[in-house]
Amino acid sequence: MTETAPEPASAFQGLRLGRVPWLVLTLLIAAFVILPLATVVWLAVGNSDGVWAHLAATTLPRYLGNTLLLMGSVGLAAGVTGTATAWLVTMYAFPGVRWLRWALLLPMAIPAYIGAYALTDFLEYAGPVQTGLRALFGWQSARDYWFPEIRSRWAAILVLSASLFPYVYLLSRSALREHSASSFDVARALGAGHLARFLRVGLPLIRPAAAAGIAIVMMETGADFGVVDFFAVQTLTTGIFTTWLEGGSAAGAAQIALVCLGLVLVLASAERISRRRAQVYAHAKRLSKPNPIRLSGWPAWAATAACLLPFALGFVLPGGIIASLALENAGEWLDPRLIRAGINTLFTAGIAACLTIALSLVLVYGVRLTGSKAMRLLLPVTALGYAAPGAVLGLGLLLPMAALDHRIADGLELVGINAGMLLTGSSAAVILAYMVRFFAIGQGAADSAMGRIPPSLPMAARSLGRTPSGTLRTVHLPMIRGSVGTALLLVFVDGVKELPATLLLRPFNFDTLATRVYGQASLERIGDAAPPSMLIILVGLVAVVLLARANR
After folding, report:
1. How far apart are the first and last CA of the chain?
2. What's the CA gap between 366 and 381, in Å, rounded?
């Protein structure tokens, strides 16, 4: 039997005529995803009338210092918590370990900014903790006792660490489960104790996965706006809002955004280098998964407490406070503004999720159709939006969209139509921001799912006369619908929780659940912020349950 010759490696050499539209679509989608980041770079390096020198001499060192301090502290705290809990629930059997394995994922369902509002309501001067202390000891005012300042950097570190450590936990636990039990059994037979097995065997094995999780945590910390804004910690993200919206300098905001992107690229590069230098290979034929060692007595209860503490801080405490406040403010559930915000959220996140997955499929399929190594370089480039803060993407999208809006309006006025701002004056800008921000989720899911399809199946369909689009519809989509559905849900959930990009790009009098929570909390009306917060948490729980089922 004669084998078919492989297609050329070049992006254009030997490209069949039927595949040219797919190439054009692929390049257009990639350009759309890259546009916001390119706009930020263009604004930052352009003529800014000395704004950079002014920022460098005044506020930028404070923004950068606070950002680095938060990223380092949260990365360290989440790294220690995530790796320790992953080691405990994987390697040991103790009371409650079976439900703790999935319960430690639940903090992912609560956005960090909602955790910040809950913590403040719980620990502030009028909250139940300080009120109870005054009643118990007879104190009359704050002058009679000392209590740590709630709106501070330490509180931001605590909230972000409690919310983000599951990223490290999930990746570390997966890495431990992928290795044979023989390594741990040999170390145990040689007399290594619990701590020695963790430091000398477990930690080196999970180091690449833990490093990836810590990098994600640090990038999420650098991108956060809701927590640092509420706790009055000036970071690069808040600096973008302040410089642009209050200072009126788009160029200055773009230069701060460029510093954010620089930190993201440094983190991503360091994580890749770390994984290359610390590659660990599992046995080709794994004998068995790690065998949990049964603990008894106080070590067993200490392990339970060690896993319960981050679960309580990250989920039970904020979730319980928000649920209690939501019940106390039952009237808020019937507020027409909350209902409109819920409808807006469903519409924007739903449309963005559908478009993101559709364009991701087209991009990945188009790249695979060309068979070009050069074209495959587009995939990691289009994933940069997920690492960029929402404020950066909002800045990068708003300016080109506003320019396009003006051109469209001027063209329509020539024929007597006054259309106003079609893009920036509607939810279209928010939808586009979600698409760029979470494009990496859809692209990654589509690429990995299509990679699992045997090449013989689409080749057989093509030999039977199917067009490229027909092959995608009848062969690929039925086989990858599970992965596509999961990615669709994850993009939708992330869109529901997204705050900074929505704040920058939403039209006047347009609220989502996230912006309504932020608006009420910024007015110190935490009780009124509880119902929309509860809705966001419930949506997040759906994604976490799905994730837990996939990692059983």
Report:
1. 44
2. 15
Using the 3D structure, point to which of 279, 301, 323 is the last residue of a domain.
Answer: 323
Structure tokens at 241: 């809002």
From CA 528, how far away is CA 521, in angstroms rounded? 8
The C-alpha atoms of residue 110 and residue 162 are separated, in whole angstroms, by: 10
- Would you state the pLDDT for residue 80? 93
Q: How many domains does the chain have?
A: 2
Half-sphere exposure of 334 (CA within 13 A, CB side): 2
**CA-to-CA distance for 274 and 382, rounded, in angstroms?**
23
Q: Pairing between strand 92-93 and 293-294? A: parallel
Of 273, 291, 323, the position where a domain reaches its end is 323
- Angle ∠(532,538,543) on CA atoms, nearest 5: 130
Range of the domain at 160: 62-323
Contact between residue 364 and residue 442 where contact means Cβ atoms under 8 Å apart = no
Residue range 475-533, pLDDT digits in tens: 778 888 877 887 888 889 889 999 988 988 888 889 999 999 999 998 888 889 999 99
Contact 480, 450 (CB under 8 A): yes
* Residue among 496, 481, 487 nearest 441 (CA): 487
Give the alpha-carbon dihedral of 37, 42, 47, 49, to 10 degrees: 0
* CA distance readout (Å), 210 to 69, 78, 380, 496: 20, 10, 21, 27
Residues ≥6 apart with Cβ < 8 Å to 99: none
CA–CA gap between residue 296 and residue 302 (Å, rounded): 10
Beta strands per DSSP E along 171-244: none
Q: Which residues contact 227 (CB under 8 A, 6 or more apart)?
A: 112, 113, 115, 116, 156, 159, 160, 233
Give the Cα separation of 275 and 273 in Å (integer). Answer: 5
